[in-house]
From TrEMBL, chain A:
Keywords: Coiled coil, Oxidoreductase, Pyruvate, Thiamine pyrophosphate. The lineage of its organism: Eukaryota, Viridiplantae, Streptophyta, Embryophyta, Tracheophyta. This is Pyruvate dehydrogenase E1 component subunit alpha. Its EC number is 1.2.4.1. Its cofactor is thiamine diphosphate.
TrEMBL record, chain B:
This is Pyruvate dehydrogenase E1 component subunit beta. It comes from Cinchona calisaya. SMART domains: Transket_pyr (SM00861). It is found in: Mitochondrion matrix. The keyword Transit peptide applies. It is an enzyme of class 1 (oxidoreductase). Pfam families: Transket_pyr, Transketolase_C. Its main location: mitochondrion. GO terms for molecular function: metal ion binding; pyruvate dehydrogenase (acetyl-transferring) activity. GO terms for cellular component: mitochondrial matrix. It catalyses: N(6)-[(R)-lipoyl]-L-lysyl-[protein] + pyruvate + H(+) = N(6)-[(R)-S(8)-acetyldihydrolipoyl]-L-lysyl-[protein] + CO2.
Length: 439, 371
């Protein structure tokens, strides 16, 4: 297993099964290692020693952490300990996870190329380094389950099953895109796959996700659709956890026991604002128990650990036991967006996380446990390369949206808007160009 | 209980007066004399009741809509009838619950969000515009958002700057939103039912001071199938000398002004806009082509207002029909003052409308009359 920042103190077994917090091991980031390792959890830089003070070790902090562990997670721990000898995944599962992560990585690398070639435009936020979170969570979902994402949404869309062609085409601004070229990089939607956006503002997606979860409950309890056990995942970053909507929704989701998992992708940086410099108590997972839901911290660079936690949290939601807050400690390998010069992050910190690449880690795990051969994994790489190439070709060859598309889709029922008396779109009316829009 | 279609009949007892403030009586002009009377409050309540009864995916959420029966008692009786899963008391978290309702609408429910007043929608405007209004477009037509945002809008009385504001022009400028503003009980019932059934986000601007007003309602209006078209204005009063456009409470003022003008031999045509967006340009232009004069009335701020848009439409489409410059009556360009005398000056009054209409007909001296 790839070494983790805390492996020396935490995971002495060769196969760390328990990525969730447990009563006897409440903290994944023991204070002593924290002090001596500048780039361990919430690594950031040594310049921030002042900010670290509030999370220095104390007995009260430990007891608070114990409270955070849900009964469910504790039980699970006992159970899974019993089957310690088993591998965490089957060969098929391993290959699925590997393929999804490689797809996410290759797709984003290709996006960077295409962006620099001028094929896509605006803000493009890449997901490199965080693949274990998307794959670890979303691959456990059913088609009917929902995902609500942020502006860093391409890979969530891919994991949820939106074809790479449709996502690439959307980024190229082509009419074959998953939103006909009307959404763009930050607004991926797919009704078929229950991908509900793509939100460009911090915290904006969380209430929408809460509403999707509310719908599942409403359908089961009011509309009497007994089999509606759909779960919603809300993805967002560490920066969002200082936004009011996060707290508003933790409250409502716990209050109404909604089937939702709040997945924090804590990549330690909100553009150039270090998490430690922005947040009074940087242990985000602790906010779960404050609202009456379990809070779990997991190594977000390890897809198997993420998957274990995700199983637990999604299962809890599906059983109607309410929401869970999961903090995945991860890292983005690129700047905030392709326009970000990324000058504030310490190169040592970047190198530290680069050495913990989640894809390499899974690869090593699979090879060491004879879950796959080098050749099999190479075959996956090749398959994905071809898939991404094909997506680019498809997007490149696809037509631009027609002029008439400008005024389409503003309303489900556009009567009274944008349509002339003859039933034709007003942009086809020569007088329309009297406005400022050049069509 | 669910799905059992119920006959109408408003259940709310009469006379729960939220404010006790009476505006100018304006029943004179409503049609079907001798018909039953109904308050705007009961009209809204019965519309909610019927639509919730007809469609189990309709739900109501907001602050105090349940156990308190609504801050203005619009949701009275609904909690008892539909239970706490469909009439949902929310915490005081506008951004949170509005966004949540939008998310529910993405997924096929038909939420009605009540803002205690529309001023509080400012806390949630991101979700009204960015999450609700834009989603159908951004998703290339995949995600429609059947949701209603409703509550009292506009100037109340003595509540100061932060609680007295008209949002018609604000929301009226956003693509993806439909914006309705009822005046009478007929409007309230017909438009709210249309809004709930509509597949798109609708901003429904009520007026606190009208809730207690009674209007005659015909049997047709009381029928549970009654519904008004979105985007159609109503000619409340036919006339030939000057067109007065107004919405919400200002329709009553315009009718009162028309009454005064009639005594002086000026025949005013009063248009109740009903729909701010889409705006019924056809009806307004047809009227101005007949009267050749236009006065617009609104409570909101003057700059970039509803009146400004109507004037632009007339100048673009019916310029050659105008016999006088158009007149805009609006709220003063200031935050709402608290003092009663200042407050009165800050919103349009009947005499302002009368004066403007006379000016368009060259019946008064423009400058001196203003002083």
């Amino acid at each position: 297993m790839a070494a983790t920042a805390f492996s020396s103190t935490k995971f002495t077994q060769p196969l760390p099964l328990n990525s969730t917090r447990s009563a006897d091991r409440p903290l994944l980031f023991p204070a002593h290692s924290f002090k001596t390792t500048p780039s361990s959890f919430l690594g950031s830089t040594h310049k921030l020693s002042l900010s670290r003070a509030p999370i220095s070790p104390s007995s009260s902090r430990r007891s608070a952490a114990v409270v955070a562990v849900s009964e469910v997670v504790k039980e699970k721990k006992t159970k899974s300990s019993a089957s310690l000898s088993n591998l965490l995944i089957t060969k098929e599962e391993g290959l699925e996870l590997y393929e999804d992560m490689v797809l996410g990585r290759s797709f984003e690398d290709m996006c960077a190329q295409m962006y620099y070639r001028g094929k896509m435009f605006g803000f493009v936020h890449l997901y490199n380094g965080q693949e274990a979170v998307s794959t670890g969570f979303i691959k456990l979902l059913k088609q009917e389950d929902s995902v609500v994402s942020t502006y860093r949404d391409h890979v969530h869309a891919l994991s949820k099953g939106v074809p790479a062609r449709a996502v690439m085409s959307e980024l190229f601004g082509k009419t074959t895109g998953c939103c006909r070229g009307q959404g763009g990089s930050m607004h991926m939607f797919s009704k078929e796959h229950n991908l509900l956006g793509g939100f460009a503002f911090i915290g904006e997606g969380i209430p929408v996700a809460t509403g999707a979860a509310f719908t599942s409950k409403y359908r089961r309890e009011v509309l009497k659709e007994a089999d509606c056990d759909h779960v919603t995942l809300a993805f967002f970053g560490d920066g969002t956890c200082n936004n009011g909507q996060f707290f508003e929704c933790l409250n409502m989701a716990a209050l109404w026991k909604l089937p939702i998992v709040f997945v924090v992708e804590n990549n330690l940086w909100a553009i150039g604002m270090s998490h430690l410099r922005a947040t009074s108590d940087p242990q985000i997972w602790k906010k779960g128990p404050a609202f009456g839901m379990p809070g779990v911290h997991v190594d977000g660079m390890d897809v198997l650990k993420v998957r274990e936690v995700a199983k637990e949290a999604i299962g809890r939601a599906r059983r109607g036991e309410g929401p869970t807050l999961v903090e995945c400690e991860t890292y983005r390998f690129r700047g905030h967006s392709l326009a970000d010069p990324d000058e504030l992050r310490d190169p040592a910190e970047k190198a530290h996380y680069a050495a913990r690449d989640p894809i390499s880690a899974l690869k090593t795990y699979m090879l060491e446990n004879n879950l796959a051969s080098e050749a099999e994994l190479k075959a996956v790489d090749k398959k994905i390369d071809e898939l991404v190439e094909d997506a680019v070709e498809f997007a490149d060859e696809s037509p631009l949206p027609a002029r008439s598309q400008l005024l389409e889709n503003v309303f489900a029922d556009p009567r009274g808007f944008g349509i002339g008396p003859d039933g034709r779109y007003r942009c086809e009316d020569p007088k329309f160009t009297e406005g400022t829009a050049k069509v | 209980m669910l799905g059992s279609l119920r006959k109408i009949v408003s259940q709310s007892p009469r006379g729960i007066s939220a404010s006790g403030i009476r505006i100018i009586a304006s029943r004179t002009y409503a049609s079907s004399a001798g018909a039953k009377e109904m308050t705007v409050r009961d009209a809204l309540n019965s519309a909610l009741d019927e639509e919730m009864s007809a469609d189990p995916s309709v739900l109501l959420m907001g602050e105090e809509v349940g156990e308190y029966q609504g801050a203005y008692k619009i949701s009275k009786g609904l909690l008892d009838k539909y239970g706490p899963k469909r009439v949902i008391d929310t915490p005081i978290t506008e951004a949170g619950f509005t966004g949540m309702a939008v998310g529910a609408a993405y997924h096929g429910l038909r939420p009605i969000v009540e803002f205690m007043t529309f001023n509080f929608s400012m806390q949630a405007i991101d979700h009204i515009i960015n999450s609700a209004a834009k989603s159908n477009y951004m998703s290339g037509g995949q995600i429609s958002v059947p949701i209603v945002f409703r509550g009292p809008n506009g100037a109340a009385s003595g509540v100061g700057a932060q609680h007295s504001q008209c949002y018609a022009a604000w929301y009226g400028s956003c693509p993806g939103l439909k914006v309705l503003a009822p005046y009478s009980s007929e409007d309230a019932r017909g438009l709210l039912k249309a809004a709930i059934r509509d597949p798109d986000p609708v901003v429904f601007l009520e007026n606190e001071l009208l809730y207690g007003e009674s209007f005659p309602v015909s049997a047709e209006v009381l029928d549970s199938s009654f519904c008004l078209p979105i985007g159609k204005a109503k000619i409340e009063l036919e006339g030939k000398d000057v067109t007065i456009t107004a919405f919400s409470k200002m329709v009553g003022y315009a009718l009162k002004a028309a009454e005064i003008l009639a005594k002086e031999g000026i025949s005013a045509e009063v248009i109740n806009l009903r729909s701010i967006r889409p705006l019924d340009r056809a009806t307004i232009n047809a009227s101005v082509r007949k009267t050749n004069r236009l006065v617009t009335v609104e409570e909101g701020f003057p700059q970039h207002g509803v009146g400004a848009e109507i004037c632009a439409s007339i100048v673009e489409e019916s310029f050659q029909y105008l016999d006088a410059p158009v007149e805009r009556i609006s709220g003063a360009d200031v935050p709402m003052p608290y003092a009663a005398n200042l407050e009165r000056m800050a919103v349009p009054q009947v005499e302002d409308i009368v004066r403007a209409a006379k000016r368009t007909c060259y019946r008064s001296v423009p400058v001196a009359a203003n002083a």
